[in-house]
Amino acid sequence: MKTLSIRSGGVALHTEEAGNPAGKPILFIHGFSQCGLAWRKQMCSDLGRDFRLVTMDIRGHGLSDKPIDAYGMPELWAQDVEALIDTLHLDAPILVASSYAGVIVSDYIRIYGEGRIGGVQLVGAVSRLGAPLVGGNFLGSEFLALMPGFFSTDAVESVSTLARFLRLCVQVEPSREDLCLSLGYNTLVPPHVRQALFARHVDNDAVFAAMHKPVSLVYGEADQIVSPRMCTHLEGLVPHADASTYPEIGHLPFWEAPERFNRELRAFRERA
Is the whole model's pTM more than 0.85, yes or no? Predict the structure, then answer.
């Protein structure tokens, strides 16, 4: 595994790379309050025999910089993805976007177009934030109830909220080891970052509706964070998208069903 810090508008972004350097690239972009470690069942899998695998810790997360006020503009998120594609010389990468990263990817396409990418895979991902997202009834009620705790500066309340959030993400009780690791990197995200992420009001439906490159939709049928209604919504926007739903799987299909997820991602990357 290789690590690298790249610069984007004065912000240092932590990235990791594994797999076949000559293979078609796959860029994994994690969701809210996570980091690149969320993709470890892909980075350490047989996908690496054939593909170049890259993760990034988005700004404010993981080992990337955490500025106070640098989260509200789509241009900032777009330039982060562009900086990584440029710096690592990624040739037509597939962008695999989990949860919140659906908006980051659509910010990128809104600003830079889809000419430099091979396609997009949306995994429990959203195309909207703020009022357009909540108003569409796309978020689970138990997740919405956690919002005050996400923004709390009280350590006990914050950690308790994050533990409940992680339990909502999956259907099966995680092992103590997995829970502790995930909780550890979730706590690296300061409350001001979480609040800034959810302060955005974004509707990028039109971005996905205008896409011509291949699109894959992957959603858990038991997702308690992002309702499967989002998958149906995106299918209506992107008629050429391939949709794959996972019975009895929650918000993280790549974590709960990695063998199936990796197999289907391989097939998507090979044809895109």
Answer: yes
